[in-house]
Design a protein that fits this description.
Layout: H1 4-11, E1 20-23, E2 31-34, H2 35-40, E3 43-47, H3 54-62, E4 67-71, H4 77-96, H5 100-120, E5 125-127, E6 130-132, E7 139-141, H6 142-149, E8 157-163, H7 168-176, E9 181-188, H8 195-205, E10 209-215, E11 234-240, H9 241-244
Parallel strand pairs: 3-4, 3-8, 4-5, 6-7, 8-9
Antiparallel strand pairs: 1-2, 9-11, 10-11
Amino acid sequence: MLLVVEINQLQRRLSHCGDLVRVGGPHERGHLIPARAISKTKTLLSLGVNDNWRFDKAFQELNPECQVVAVDHNLSLSSVLSEALSSSVKLLRSALLGKIKQSKRHAQTLLNQVLLYIFYNSSNRLLRRRVSNQTNEVDISLETLIAVYGTIDDNATMLNVTMSCQQCHLLEDIIALESMLSVVTIELTPLPTNMNEVEGLINQLSNCFDIVNVSSNGVDVDQVSSVGCLEAPLELTFMNKRLSR
């Protein structure tokens, strides 16, 4: 696991950005993002949303004109409805048996699924696809994703992605499509085992993007484990160099 001292070393490479604002809370796929990029972004592509959509919602609250397109190969509107029905049954069963704690948990899950469905069933979209280096019935490439669902204008699409250090094809696609991207936020999971992996990722993107934030997903360093290891996912924010200028 990464150590606190290694995170501090990575933070020395940050480019100064005086208008960073936090979108989403800690532990909720939240990120620090330049305010200038929020207002410029017309499409937010959110990859690997799972059922945690709070970042997407928080971003659109700051920029209501921005459309959110979430991509997850395990999630679709029909699967959300199916899960909501299952949660309803579990809630009813727990309530009838007088299991208060279970009822509250199922009620919270049901509410999240209902709100998720409403959010992506409005002007936003939820795609059940897997982002890959090709496009077929199951997979979709980042280039196709931006061409079909993004905004082709310069620096008008923002990319929010959960990935591992080994997903090199995504970095190559991001670099190739940099003219369309305002900001790239990355949540690294699983957590890298050493700093070299993170530095390699930063170096790959450094020609086109300035790194403006490296942090432990909103967790203070005082909250790490007793041996000084970082346990929360690592969040990175890259801003297109055109916006920096």
